[in-house]
Each structure stands twice: as C-alpha cells, then as structure tokens.
Amino acid sequence: MRVRFWGTRGSIATPGPDTVRFGGNTACIEVTTDAGACFIFDCGTGARALGASLMAHAPKPISATILLSHTHWDHIQGFPFFAPLFGPGNRITVCGPEGSGRSLREVLSGQMEFTYFPIEIGQLPATITFQELGEGTHEIGGARIIAQYLHHPAMTLGYRIEADGAAVVYLCDHEPFSETFWHDSPAAGHAESIVHDGDRRHARFMAGAGLVIHDGQYTPEEYPSKKNWGHSTYEYAVGMAAAAGVRQLVLTHHDPIHDDAFVEEVEKRACGYARQRGYNVQVCCAFEGQDLAIEPHGVPQLTPPVPHSGRDTLQSRRILVVDDDPDIRALANKALSQDGHIVTEAGSGREALALIDKQAPDLLVLDLLMPVQGGLDVLKILRSRPATAALPVVVLTAMDDEVTTRASFEFGATDYLTKPFSIPQLAARVRACLARTGSDVT
Ligand SMILES: [Zn+2]
Ligand SMILES: [Zn+2]
User: Fold this and answer.
1) What share of the chain is helix, strand, coil (3-state, %, to 5)?
2) Mean pLDDT of the chain, nearest integer
C-alpha cells in the first residue's frame, strides 16, 4: 500500500506563510493498494488537489472509495471540489458512519444547496454511491475494511484497511475515553494495563499495524481546557500505538493555531516521549505531500470484538436516566430525547430498580454517587438478575479516578463517561453503545 497526505490540518483550513511545511488543508489522505484500488480517508480541503492529481494520473474512468470518519466541516469541505465527481463514467463510493441523524447523501447535499454552492449533488456527472457503515468488517474495493466507533461529539468511525499483507489504520477526531490511561506507571505501554475499556478497544483496533494515522491536535498542556472537544494528545496516541505494537505512527489533524515551528516542536516532544519510555514505535507529524510506502509485514487479520449489529442506531429506545442531580437528569434527558428516545428519570438507585422492573428499559444512564443506594450497588444487583444481566449501562459520573473506573467495568458497566459532559458527546456514546449491544426493542 502507498499512503499520501493531502490535508493534515484540523478544524479549519489554515493556509499562509506559517503553515507551509505541515500544510494548511484539512483532512484528506489517499491510500492506494498494490492492485490499484484507491481509498480516501476524509474529504477535507486537501481533496481538491488529490482530485486534480487523480484526473491527471489515474487510469480512466476513475474509481475511488471515500471513507468519511464523520461529516464535520473539516472532513467534507473538499467534496464539492473533488474533480473526479465532475467526470462522466467515474465511479465514486462514499462511505461514512450511519446514525448521524440524516443519510450521508442528505448531509453532503446540504453543503451543496444553492445557498452555499452553485452545483447540486444530483447534477454531478460521476456515478456516486453512498454506503452507511456501522462497526465491523466490510469488503470494499477488494480490501478488508474494519470500522470502529471513536470518541468524538458526533458519530465518528475509525478505519483499518487490511491489504497487501499490511494494515493502515486511520483514527482521526478521537479523544481519550479516560484521562488516566494506565493502571499504574510501571505497567504503562501494554494493552492489558489500559484503564478504560474504550481505550483498550481503541488500542486493539491498531494491533500490529504498519501505519497508524492518529489525531494529535493538542499538547498535554492544552488538553485540559479542550476536554470533550473530541481530540487527542500525542502522549495518548504514542502510548496506545506502543501498546498495540504499531510500527509507525503519524500524528495529524494539527490545530489551526499551531504554526510550523509549533508542530515541529510537537513532533520532537512526541519522539522524545516514545524514546524515554522505550517504546518501539516511529513517530512523526503528518505534512502535506508526505508519501509513505507500507511494506508487507505479515499483520494478522483483526477480529473485531463486536460484529456490526446491522441495527439502526437511531431507532427509538427506552432509556432510564438515574441521577440524584435534577440538572444532570434534565441535560441527559435533552441529549437523548433529541435522538428520539423515550427517556424516563429516576432520582435514586432504589427508584431506578423499581422502574426497571416496571419499564424494562433498553439502556441505563447511571450516576455512581447517590444517597441511599449508589450506582455500583445498582449495577451489582442488575448483573445478578438474568433479566438485566446484559442491560447496557452507561455510567455517568464525576468520579474520574482509576479505582472507580476499573471497579465499574469489573461490575459490568458497558461504558464509563465522566462529568462534565456535552449533549452531543453523551448522544454519540449512547448511540455507539446501542449499536454494539444491539438491544432488542420489545
Ligand atoms: Zn476534524
Ligand atoms: Zn469532528
């Protein structure tokens, strides 16, 4: 496989004299297999130059598969300027996560409405097909593509392409599930030492990859004020890649306020961090025009832990929100009602257990610290009863310490989210949880 970077910037295009080295175009990466299949990770403004290059050099008619992580602007703004869409006979497949509220076609059409753009999507001469993906394995363009949800305030997919005896993994617009990565520092750097199940799943998704392209938007100093914005630090990306036995890590989605000198410093610090910990992973920051050949490295095929359930992530479900704080209940209720779910509330563990018996909810959002009966108690009781042993439970708590996080997973929490949280973040986590558990509507 060959990998070429056409857009490395996050959030908004940042052209100018200060971003010449690493580039100002937003997310777009071309992956070409030895057989000539063309995959494109995201369609930010970098897609304009990629499109021009394909028109000039690719065999005609052009055939390409766009794998969108999600549809935030910086990942789709290059789409209307992607020249192969204007060539009759070209075949472009656009894949992206299901469950964003509208179909992929509708979302991409939205930014091409007459108010914003002179040509509507239906007027494009190429044959465009849309494929909405959930988690799991998909055979696309002769390659094995595995998709897994990331942690971002939108439904966002990471992709793993397995072809030519190698694996290339794209994990952009993702932030750590937990601020504490490892059980304790001597055990750092191993998948089994990762505190949060979500981060462990994230590391396993990269297992043995020849190349991982990872979100590295913030420095560790910047991250605390940007928590819940959906992006990572280089320390997290390096640590997870090392735990997964990754050969090469390329950090991307550079912050718009980071000029070339700053990104260069990030690269130095990331390399130093890996070296200092004895991690055997090569690290650099992505730059526009970077071209990498990924040699076959005998990577084992990844078995995704959860096959795609094939269920509609936006199907209305019954959700019970359990928290003694009425403001938190109201916020969670708003986040989940917006997705069409039927939400009920309980102000204590005891009230929750009574309601669960009556209402048989499809998912529980559960606080831990509540008077009388705490969340861990409720979780233990639920797991001991056959009717609720597999009920998805998203813990939502202010407790962000390692011990409570681990205890919750040991007691059977499905996911663990800390306060403060944002409405889109909770909605996305619940959608991912429901898609994974494939809970039946009864
Ligand atoms: Zn982005
Ligand atoms: Zn985003």
Assistant:
1) 30, 25, 45
2) 94
